[in-house]
Amino acid sequence: MAVIKGGAYGHGLLKIAQIFDQEKLPFLGVANAGEARKLFEGGIQTRPYILGATLPVEREEIAARRWTPCLCSFEELEHFNQLGRTTPIEAHLALDTGMGRGGFLPEHLGAALEKLRSSPGIQLTGVGSHLPVADEDSAFTRSQFELFDTLVESIPKPGSHFHIHLSNSAGLLNYQSRTTNLVRPGLLLYGISPIAEHQALLKPAMSLKTRVSVINNLPKGHGVSYGRTILKRDTQAAVLGLGYGDGYPRSLSGKGGQVLLNGTLCPLLGRVTMDQIIVDVTDLPQCHPGDEAILFGKDLLVTEIAAKAGTIAWEILTQITPRVTRSYR
């Protein structure tokens, strides 16, 4: 299952869906009915899988268009059973094995299966759970795999096309289940590893770029940007046409952020503003208006930017705003 929620992690929902649609995958993982609808309207044939709990107002469309929901509560189970009276709805059962974000707790699994047996409007075609700390806590994650596998082994599997899934990107890299036959990579698909030791195997799919708009020669003691960061030397300050209005994190201000300009890492000066940032190009042999600047990409990883901004790569990728032009190659 290719996870393409959040606008395909900022890469562009429909364009990335078109690429994965050629791979004949069983599912494309989306966050909600709104994202599934965009796939439907864009002519995508691969079935959307709704990764989270659904709202009552969404369920009729999900049922009518044969999208696959994951059942996270008895209330959802009851409602989808009613909606599937004419044509049963294919659905997966969500288990909460430690995420705390939805799904049936292990002690409620028996009651959920009993309810499903008396729900002709639902055809159970899979079961899944989610890993909260696969990139942080290996001991807990191993115990979670054991719990999930044990629970799955207690569930009758109707037919050979029953999907069993647990691993996200980090789970796929470092762990092994004895029951699963489906995985749900997200970040990994876009060439970014959630576990640093595996990054050398991957190539980031996205580079975020802008250009130098003007270069100013500023004297020592002059202020730069909002809040007036005071220069400690005579400085060539290049203004770049990008800011937090494009998704570049304002929290990088004063945190040692850098951009790649003509093959050289240049430090940010002052605060990130909505539409522009300023970088120190004093030490560059050559720099001119129009020169390309790389904010992140294969030579300046988004994970490095995220660490300095005090956040995670997922957030930076998904916060790149619509006004940033996506160019696909």
Q: Can you give me a brief rundown of this structure?
A:
The protein has 10 helices and 15 strands. The chain is an alpha/beta fold and 329 residues long.
CATH architecture of the largest domain: Alpha-Beta Barrel
Supply the number of structural domains: 2
Q: Percent range for helical residues? A: 25-40%
Uncertain segments: none
CATH topology of the largest domain: TIM Barrel
Oligomeric state as shown: single chain
Query: Structural class from helices and strands?
Result: alpha/beta
From the alpha carbons, calculate the radius of gyration and give it in angstroms: 24 Å
- How far the N terminus sits from the C terminus, by CA atoms, comes to 23 Å
The helix/strand order is EHHEHEHEHEHEHEHEEEEEEEEHH
Number of helices: 10
User: What is the general shape?
Assistant: elongated
Structure overview:
- The strands form 3 sheets. Strands 1-2-3-4-5-6-7 form a 7-stranded parallel beta sheet.
- The chain is elongated.
- The chain has 2 domains: 2-201, TIM Barrel, CATH 3.20.20.10; 208-318, Beta Barrel (Lyase, Ornithine Decarboxylase, Chain A, domain 1), CATH 2.40.37.
- 26% of the residues lie in helices and 21% in strands.
- It has helices at 5-9, 13-21, 33-41, 56-64, 74-83, 109-117, 138-153, 169-174, 302-309, 313-318, and strands spanning 2-3, 28-30, 48-50, 68-71, 89-94, 122-128, 163-165, 208-218, 223-224, 229-230, 235-240, 258-261, 264-269, 277-280, 292-296.
- 36% of the residues are buried.
- It has 10 helices and 15 strands.
- By secondary structure, it is an alpha/beta fold.
